[in-house]
Design a protein that fits this description.
The complex is a heterodimer of chains A (453) and B (267). Chain A is an alpha/beta fold. Chain A contains 10 helices and 14 strands. Chain B has 1 helix and 15 strands. Classes of the chains: A alpha/beta (453), B mainly beta (267).
């Protein structure tokens, strides 16, 4: 009895000690409610679905095994055969009750009699828009295709922004607005009709009709958010987001800093979430810097071009704290230089470069009057002007799926999720492509965490 | 702060329970000094469960994933009155939260990390109600709390280094009648139909350079009424074995199950 009592007291001491350690465990940084942003206010939007069929896996046994042996192996796993694909000798097996698909795959993969075991992944129509010109948009989905320009070299497989993967997660929300501050936008273009939020603002002619009288703004708008999956024309990056046209450049493609500053501020004040600036100047000025700071502080993501002269990064892209500076790549994931663009243009460089996106031979919309009445209103454009709206589209998708993120957060996500495509010559962040070519997949789709630290 | 307060609350509950139990036990011991001795048993246990848990995802849709847990427990069983048993439980668990997805972090992440360790503490109360011929009906209630250990993982594939730190906790309550057949001398099979609810949360912090985010995902089990079949086999007068298997019928069929094995030593 005495021994039993000692045991009992020892057990109680153990319980108290255990409890006491909880009371005195050090509060974490998070518990103190400081230094950490809580981001769980609004649920995100997502298109969802299972990755593989529940309760079944696909297994290929070693070819040397007899059918009887295979049957006995299946029986040892308490499984049963559901189907066999004879030509490739793959068996579909039922996962026994209480066991997970991944568990069964892992177990059978270790079996020396098994060549491979895998989940029966659900195959579905890839998120490929039905726009007929999509096949020419290597920037969104690069199958190594000839992009259509006679004599152009073939692209490199997957040298694209991984748009299809990103669209699995979101195609954007109508409430998210991309301001295209440029030469205006053709509001009658069949691939832009319905995507234009309003007549916008024309700071060149001081009116409320930002119709494009050049072509540049219409090209930019199409890349960022053309009507997509509408059986017509091309696909935009942000399928469902709206375009707010703002004209600050005239019919010659030129404008003034004051109009640009006013355009940026007007965009912020009129609900824009993202601003695309496919424009710039060699010299910076305080007015523009103040305007982009106003946007940044208003949680509006400003995406700007680095420029096409092979020189220093243009302003306002060079205002590093407030703008995402975008360089240009081509269909083989290389920075565009004079040597590989036939001496036409070269992407500017410098420490301000944040990311890159495809900017050479980019198919997009042009004003309906551009090629003449009744013509096909599309054209190939080149330059960092075409690269930036890819990034603006991604920023709009991020804002759609995670509206609580700040402009700075979205800029960082775009930077840190980039593919370091020039890592052999310039590993890490460099002054040519910044962190690399953007990846919609890594920015939007959940990353699988597998390893411990 | 909220997390810390909740932990304190749980702690107070557990301490109160423990203190009550301690006083009851000593009181019982004093009372019985003149009579029969206190009935003590220690129980070494292993348990496994695979439960479907639901959690809110995007647009308030409910998503499901599996929570699988291995539990290693040490229990002290005290008969404080005739037919009234109290258990205290301590232990360690390894819980797998595969496919749980966190989309409210700056970079969305999905877990595929294997087991995460955690400390277990809990208690059980059992009261014999009716005993007729070879059958005995008792009422059982059990509470288990698992305080998961914080764990860090690297985020793969980014242009910069980043990590997430996860801290899961879960609780389980079980309550229901147990019908035991006691005709045989050494073997006592039993059947139980109970309410078994498991709920918890997974607190995830993300740090990627200057980016920081936190998401607390609450989850709970969908199947709540298991049917359990078990047996107690007395190896010797002081040592017995207890085994139990439970299935959790649900609208999608029987996907959830649990089993446990206990070695009981009576002092």
């Amino acid at each position: 009895m005495k021994t039993e009592k000692i045991w009992f007291i020892f057990f109680m001491i153990l319980v108290f000690s255990f409890s006491w350690s909880f009371v005195h465990s050090k509060p974490t940084e998070n518990d103190q409610g400081e230094n950490t942003i809580t981001l769980n206010k609004i649920p995100p939007f997502r298109f969802g679905g299972p990755l593989y069929a529940p309760g079944e896996i696909l297994v290929k046994f070693k070819p040397s095994l007899s059918e009887q042996k295979i049957e006995s192996i299946i029986a040892t796993y308490k499984s049963r055969k559901l189907r066999r694909i004879p030509r490739i000798d793959v068996h579909k097996l039922q996962v026994p009750e209480g066991m997970e698909v991944r568990e069964m795959v892992s177990l059978m993969s270790q079996d020396p009699d098994v060549e491979y075991a895998e989940a029966n992944y659900i195959v579905h129509i890839a998120v490929t828009p039905n726009d007929p010109l999509f096949i020419y948009q290597y920037a969104l989905s690069n199958s190594g295709q000839d992009i259509g320009v006679p004599g152009s070299p073939q692209g490199k497989l997957r040298a694209d922004i991984k748009a299809a993967e990103g669209w699995e997660e979101t195609k954007g929300e109508e409430a998210i607005i991309i301001a295209v501050i440029d030469t205006g936008v053709d509001m009658l273009h069949p691939d832009l009709v319905g995507k234009i939020l309003s007549g916008g603002r024309d700071f060149v002619n001081d009116d409320d009709d930002a119709t494009d009288d050049h072509y540049h703004g219409t090209l930019v708008a199409g890349v960022a958010a053309a009507n997509t999956d509408n059986n017509e024309g091309m696909a935009g990056v942000a399928w469902n987001c709206k375009i707010l046209p703002i004209k600050v450049l005239d019919a010659e493609g030129e404008g003034y800093s004051d109009d640009l500053a006013e355009g940026i501020i007007w965009a912020v004040d009129n609900g824009a979430n993202v601003i695309n600036l496919s424009l710039g100047a060699e010299e910076g000025n305080q007015t523009i810097e103040d305007a982009v700071r106003y946007a940044y502080e208003g949680d509006v993501v400003v995406v700007a071009v680095t420029g096409n002269e092979g020189g220093s990064v243009l302003y306002p892209a060079a205002y590093d704290a407030y703008c995402l500076a975008v360089a240009g790549t081509n269909n083989v994931d290389e920075r565009v230089t004079f040597s590989n663009s036939g001496g036409v243009w070269e992407s500017n460089y410098g420490p301000e470069v944040d990311v890159a996106a495809p900017g050479e031979d980019i198919l997009s919309t042009v004003p309906t009057w551009f090629w003449g009445s009744g013509s096909f209103p599309y054209a190939y454009g080149g330059g960092t002007s075409m690269a930036a709206p890819h990034v603006a589209g991604l920023a709009a998708l991020l804002k759609s799926i995670k509206p609580w993120l700040s402009a700075g957060d979205i800029m960082d996500i775009i930077r840190f999720s980039a593919d370091d495509v020039n890592s052999i010559e310039n590993p890490g962040k460099d002054e040519f492509l910044g962190y690399g070519r953007i990846s919609m997949e890594k920015a939007l789709v959940p990353l699988i965490i597998t390893s411990s630290k | 702060m909220e997390v810390w307060m909740k932990r304190c609350l749980y702690l107070v509950m557990i301490l109160t329970f423990t203190l009550n139990l301690t006083f009851l036990s000593f009181a019982q011991a004093e009372i019985e000094e003149a009579g029969p001795s206190i009935n003590l048993k220690s129980v070494l246990g292993f348990e496994f469960f695979s439960r479907t848990v639901g959690w809110k995802g995007d647009n308030e849709n409910t998503y499901t994933s599996k929570l699988k847990s291995y539990l290693f427990t040490l229990k002290m069983d005290i008969e404080i009155q005739r037919g009234l048993f109290l258990d205290l439980l301590l232990g360690y668990s390894s819980s797998n939260y595969a496919e749980m997805t966190f989309r409210e972090l700056p970079f969305s992440v999905e877990l595929d990390v294997g087991g995460i360790g955690g400390y277990l503490i809990g208690g059980e109360i059992k009261k014999d109600l009716i005993s007729k011929e070879n059958f005995e009906i008792a009422l059982l209630g059990r509470f288990t709390f698992c305080l998961g250990l914080k764990k860090q993982w690297d985020i793969p594939g980014l242009a910069v280094t980043g990590e997430v730190e996860g801290n899961p906790t879960w609780m389980q309550v079980v309550a229901g009648p147990v019908l035991t057949y006691q005709r045989h001398n050494r073997l006592s099979p039993y059947l139980s139909l109970s309410f078994n609810y498991l709920w918890g949360s997974f607190d995830m912090d993300e740090t990627v350079q200057t980016l920081r985010g936190n998401e607390k995902k609450k989850f709970s089990t969908e199947a709540l009424i298991p049917i359990s079949l078990g047996a107690i086999y007395a190896l010797k007068d002081s040592i017995s074995l207890k085994g139990e298997f439970s299935v959790f019928p649900h609208k999608g069929g029987i996907e959830d199950f649990a089993f446990m094995i206990n070695v009981v030593y009576a002092f």
